[in-house]
Design goal:
single chain; 1205 residues; alpha+beta; Glycosyltransferase; Immunoglobulin-like; 7 domains; four-stranded mixed sheet; InlB-like_B-rpt; Listeria/Bacterioides_rpt_sf; coiled coil
């Protein structure tokens, strides 16, 4: 057996074993839940910038991290590192975060292991040259010279150049991947050594090897039977560089022309579209899997086709295909293209959000026996999915094709770094920059130092809070660009207390405020107090510092303010000015007094003096008078003014102080002229001063007494008045105040009361803040801001001091506690509902046809949950699996019902049989779930229908003796299925058998006729070889027998024993006819008798010898034997010297005496003797036996073929 035959058988055995394995492995359990790329990202525990759906980059990064984790020490092998290195390297252009996870020596250690493998593995490439192809890929990406690998300087390109026989022996995979390898780095195969070495490899040979293995109608496969998505996709990949460049193809030594080559590739593309499943993916051995889908994506991107194209023109074969389907649900997820279909295999269940690592599964439904490949991520699946997504992203972003490695061949792999991006926290206008990288998983931090007056709430993508919100603790997958998160806050509330000090506020003033509020305080227009002018608000009760007119934005504490009131001294100034009257020299003191009183006023009161201009005019006029007066006039005027002032004192009262002080001041101002004042008036002034002092002391004592024994906050005015009055006393007067100590005691008590009042105001503000926070809770719900509001209210309350807490309205506290309890109840209720859903799912148990109500109940309970609650259901995947299982069971039951509905007569139930068969095949890998009884019944119905159709289309007019095998096949099947045939079908089958019997009888009769003729033959029959009968035409009898025997044309007739005996007998007779005809022909070659010479004696003797070898009967059949007799006679006469004479007949011109005469030739001097009777069969037995065996083999193969119908 040849090597390629062994390989073919091995492949068939492998394919059969795989099918058997898949069949055994198909069970009832659904092992995993498909990932939904359209909506599943929302439940990953990972947030995306602006909540956008992640691109394929996210999945490339996640799976690359999985590969790095699962393959920490890549080494030689298709599943132990080579493809992992390829996938990780080919995605480096993304600058994704996984590059940060690759250890510094990851690739260098891999290279060292490969070098060791090359040095030590003597079997490397011995049977599989794809080992070299695979290494060319990985090493090229790592800038390694594949022409000189390891210390052995192994040249991988030479290895694949000199071993075309190994490429052929390995199968179609080898030329595919070898073409890919040499094109990956623009490598060239070495020229043949020696020249025209048949084992030397060329691109053309490999192209031809692939094209010649194309399956009819397009596509490729391992077993050369049915096209396979994987191999078809790989073949397209290998041929892509030549498809895309006619010039490149024409430089090869392919035996095909470019157009035929292009058609083959496009038939493969069209076949790939045909093989695409309704959901957009691909399968192998009836199992939808990620690897088949990955290879299809790579194939299309390599050849320049978008895997999501809806219109792909294939001009060479005049066809258009689409790779976007109508869409279908597989394993609970609907997709309509191969990219999304591939993403459904992503193992999202194993994703750790903070690490960002998750691989791809091989399958998600069914079990292909792949060592857990139906339940979790798989190494090979992850490798292929990664580079398939890289291929797609490269195509979509205009990068170099996946398998064209020239962009990385000379670029140091160490130069690829993760793309740096910044996550900036804008904390109330201050930037906190956190460097990270593209696709890194960044855990969002909290603002632990919020601005005064605010409580941190969350982050937002927009400064004004109108963007997407992110909570502290969320894990954010970083986008490609720098991003900023803006802090968002809730306000802290503060209390405002106004102490009007017996004044009356006539406007509304807020009692609380926030840090961003500005509150205008009441002014003199909106606060009054009889007898006083409002002088501003102060933060202390002693009015220290500056007054404030508003609570400014930015205030972050509760405030108590005090109203300050001032007296009406400015009114006295106004009166003083009005009393000046006509300005004379005597008015000098009045004008100066008015000026002094005005100057003693504060600016506030000065501004209230409305007749200031009168004072100024008087001062001007007085100056003019003084400038015009004599010195004596001035003295007299001054003395008169003093006396007038003393007289104006009148009765001394407390209000006389200013008058007395004025008179004293004017008197003292006279200096040496004091003696000119009336002495009585001087005494009056002295007496007035003594009286005033006593009155002042008495007034202070009275003001102290007015405070009363019980000091309250209301006593403040009296105490301050008493203090002010006391302070106005001279040092000589103060010791004379008898009750001064009472004033001091009252002041101490007032201070204490004020401190208590301030504390009370602070407490009230805090209480208000806490109660407002509680009021802000509002209606408690799970999925509004209730949790935040409750937490804020609780925090506000808990931060209060114990004495302040005691002041909070008990009803408010009850509201807070109730809100907390209500929220806990909501959480408990939610948890109970989640548990109820989980319990309902658990209660489903093993899914049967009776599980529908349980599954519907579980689904109803699950759908009743709100969206944020559904991810909490731990076994939600089991519900999806149960629904899938019930769907399968229902479909299986429907198939069984369809089968049960089929009637007895197959042809009368054609539609039901076809419908049941379609439904059965639609079950795919779940066909085995149909009961064996129903499967057998359906198979019998199909066979019955096929039998009925075969009987119906059987052409009765062409029945012959050789139709027995196909008719026997019908009879054999009918013997089992007869009850399923209609009367017409049974009747026709009888007719078919009758016609066969008639045809065979006719053939037997013909054989009998021919046999009788053959048995009557004389020639070749030893017992009759001397029975000479004149006039008998024995040669003609032989030929007639041949004609009759040749009428037996069927294999059936030729298989009869009489046929073979007659054939042997007839062959012997024909051999004797041939001997006779040869003698006749020889005689015909003789010259004319008259021309015979002695030299012709040899020829005549040779002919005579042949003639004598014939029997008497045969000699009698030599029609020109007389010529031989005459020739011998003539020669004897010539030898004796006599002239030949004619003894009878016309001898002048002799014509051939036999119709079988050949063209005359020279007589052959050397010749084997003619076979004797009975010896001729030895010469013909070998070809005859061969013919008989060939006929028998053909007959048996035909019977085998017919038996399959």
């Amino acid at each position: 057996m040849k090597k390629n035959e062994k390989m073919s058988i091995s492949k068939k055995l492998l394919a059969g074993a795989l099918v058997f394995t898949f069949t055994l492995a198909t069970g009832q359990k659904v092992y995993a839940v498909a990932y939904d790329p359209e909506n599943g990202y929302k439940d990953l525990g990972v947030r995306f910038w602006e909540n956008e759906k992640p691109s394929v980059d996210f999945y490339i990064n996640a799976t690359s991290k999985y590969i790095i984790k699962e393959v920490p020490e890549p080494t030689f092998g298709s599943t132990t590192g080579d493809w992992s290195v390829f996938s990780l390297s080919r995605g480096m252009y993304l600058g994704a975060d996984y590059l940060n996870d690759i250890p510094a020596d990851y690739f260098s250690n891999y290279i060292a292991r490969i070098e060791h493998e090359v040095m030590t593995n003597k079997n490397l490439g011995r049977t599989k040259l794809t080992d070299y192809d695979r290494l060319i890929f990985s090493l090229t990406l790592l800038n390694y010279n594949v022409h000189s690998v390891s210390n052995k300087s192994e040249d991988f390109i030479l290895k694949i150049s000199e071993n075309f026989n190994k490429i052929e022996n390995q199968g179609i995979n080898s030329p595919i991947w070898t073409l890919l390898a040499i094109n990956s780095g623009d490598y060239s195969l070495y020229p043949s050594k020696p020249e025209n070495n048949k084992n030397w490899n060329t691109e053309g040979k490999m192209i031809d090897s692939i094209i010649d293995k194309e399956i009819i109608n397009g596509g490729w496969s391992l077993n050369n039977q049915e096209p396979d998505a994987d191999i078809t996709a790989m073949a397209i990949q290998g041929l892509a560089p030549y498809y895309l460049s006619e010039e490149k193809f024409n430089k090869t030594d392919s035996s095909h022309n470019y157009l035929d080559f292009k058609k083959a590739v496009e038939r493969g593309i069209a076949k790939l579209a045909d093989l695409q499943l309704p959901h957009g993916g691909f399968d192998s051995y009836n199992a939808a899997n990620s690897e088949s889908t990955s290879q299809a994506i790579v194939a299309l991107t390599e050849i320049g086709i978008n895997p999501k194209s809806t219109n792909v023109p294939l001009n060479a074969i005049n066809k258009t295909v689409s790779f976007v389907t109508a869409g279908a649900v597989r394993d609970g997820v609907k997709t309509n293209n191969m990219v999304d279909a591939l993403l459904t295999f992503w193992d999202n269940e194993k994703l750790n959000p903070e690490i960002g690592s998750a691989g791809f599964r091989h399958v998600t439904e069914g079990n292909d026996g792949g060592s857990g490949s139906g339940t979790t991520a798989n190494g090979m699946a992850s490798d292929q999915a990664t580079y398939a997504l890289v291929a797609y992203d490269r195509f979509m972003t205009g990068q170099a094709r996946l398998q064209n490695l020239m962009d990385q061949k000379t670029t140091p792999y160490k130069s690829f770094k993760a793309k740096p991006v910044n996550l900036t926290y804008n904390i109330n206008g201050i930037s906190d920059v956190n460097p990270t990288s593209y696709l890194a998983s960044s855990k969002i931090k909290a603002d632990t130092n919020p601005p005064k007056g605010k409580i941190f709430k969350n982050w937002n993508s927009k400064q004004d809070g109108s963007g997407i919100s992110y909570k502290a603790g969320d894990v954010l997958s970083m986008p490609k660009e720098n991003i900023t998160l803006y802090s968002q806050y809730d306000y802290q509330k503060y209390g405002l207390s106004l102490n009007a000090n017996d004044g009356k506020i006539t406007t509304s003033v807020p009692t609380t405020f926030t840090v961003d509020d500005t509150i205008l305080l009441p002014t003199e227009e909106t606060i009054q107090k009889d007898g006083f002018a409002f002088d501003g608000w102060y933060t202390t009760s002693d009015f220290k510092g500056n007054p404030i007119k508003q609570i400014n934005k930015g205030t972050t504490e509760s405030i108590t303010l005090y109203a300050k009131w001032i007296g009406t001294d400015y009114l006295k100034v106004i009166n003083s000015i009005n009393n000046i009257g006509e300005v004379t020299l005597e008015k000098d003191n009045k004008i100066k007094e008015a000026r002094a009183d005005f100057d003693n006023l504060d600016k506030e009161q000065q501004n209230r003096v409305t007749n200031l201009n009168t004072l100024i005019a008087a001062e001007v006029k007085l100056k003019e008078l003084f400038e015009a007066a004599t010195e004596e006039e001035k003295i007299n005027a001054a003395v008169k003014a003093v006396e007038t002032s003393i007289n104006e004192i009148g009765k001394v009262t407390l209000t006389s102080q200013n008058s007395i002080e004025k008179a004293r001041k004017e008197y003292n101002g006279l200096g040496v002229n004091q003696n000119r004042v009336n002495p009585l008036l001087v005494q009056k002034l002295n007496d007035a001063e003594v009286t005033l002092s006593n009155l002042q002391i008495s007034s202070v004592e009275q003001s102290i007494q007015a405070i009363g024994k019980e000091v309250t906050l209301a006593s403040k005015f009296n105490i301050e008045s008493a203090r002010n009055n006391y302070n106005k006393l001279s040092d000589a007067q103060k010791p004379l105040v008898k009750n001064y100590k009472e004033l001091e005691a009252a002041e101490i008590q007032l201070k204490k009361l004020e401190e208590e009042a301030a504390e009370e105001a602070r407490i009230k503000a805090l209480v208000t803040s806490a109660e407002d926070a509680i009021d802000a809770i509002g209606k408690v719900e799970l999925y509004n801001d209730s949790e935040t509001r409750i937490q804020f209210a609780r925090l506000t309350f808990d931060n209060l001091e114990a004495n302040v807490k005691a002041r909070v309205n008990e009803e408010k506290i009850n509201v807070l506690v109730k809100s907390e309890n209500d929220y806990k109840e909501l959480l408990l209720d939610r948890d109970e509902r989640v548990k109820a859903v989980e319990a309902s799912i658990t209660a489903i148990g093993t899914v049967t046809a009776d599980s529908a109500s349980k599954i519907e109940n579980a689904r109803k309970l699950y759908d009743a949950l709100q969206n944020p609650e559904r991810p909490l259901v731990k076994n939600s995947g089991d519900l999806i699996k149960a629904e899938k299982e019930l769907e399968i069971i229902t479909k299986v039951k429907q198939v069984e019902t369809l089968i049960d509905s089929i009637g007895t007569i197959a042809s009368e139930n054609r539609e039901k049989i076809v419908k049941a068969d379609i439904a059965f095949n639609d079950l795919g890998i779940y066909k085995e779930r149909v009961s064996s009884t129903h499967k057998k019944a359906l198979e019998m119905d199909k066979n019955s229908l096929k039998l009925a159709d075969d009987i119906k289309k059987f052409d009765v007019s062409h029945i012959n003796a050789d139709s027995k095998s196909s008719i026997d096949n019908l009879n054999k099947r009918a013997s089992v299925l007869s009850k399923h045939l209609s009367k017409d079908e049974t009747s026709k089958l009888k007719t078919i058998n009758s016609k066969l019997e008639l045809a065979r009888k006719n053939e037997e009769a013909q054989l009998k006729l021919a046999t009788n003729l053959i048995n009557s033959l004389v020639l070749g029959n030893k017992s009759k070889e001397n029975q000479v009968t004149n006039g008998a035409n024995h040669v003609g009898a032989v030929k007639k027998a041949r004609i009759e025997l040749d009428k037996v044309t069927s294999s059936y007739g030729k298989s009869l024993q009489d046929y073979h005996q007659s054939e042997m007998r007839l062959i012997e007779a024909e051999a004797r006819v041939k001997a006779i005809e040869e003698v006749i022909a020889k005689i015909d070659t003789l010259p004319e008798i008259s021309q015979l010479k002695a030299k012709d004696a040899k020829l005549v003797n040779e002919i005579n010898d042949l003639f004598n070898q014939l029997t008497k009967v045969e000699q009698n059949e030599v029609t020109n034997k007389q010529v031989l007799i005459d020739a011998k006679k003539q020669l004897s006469e010539v030898k004796g010297g006599t002239t030949p004479t004619r003894t009878g007949g016309n001898y002048g011109t002799r014509k051939p005496t036999s119709n079988n005469r050949r063209t005359p030739t020279k007589a052959v001097s050397k010749r084997k003797p003619l076979p004797k009777t009975g010896e001729v069969t030895q010469n013909y037995i070998v070809p005859l036996g061969t013919a008989m065996l060939g006929s028998l083999f053909f007959w048996r193969k035909k019977e085998e073929k017919d038996s399959l119908l």
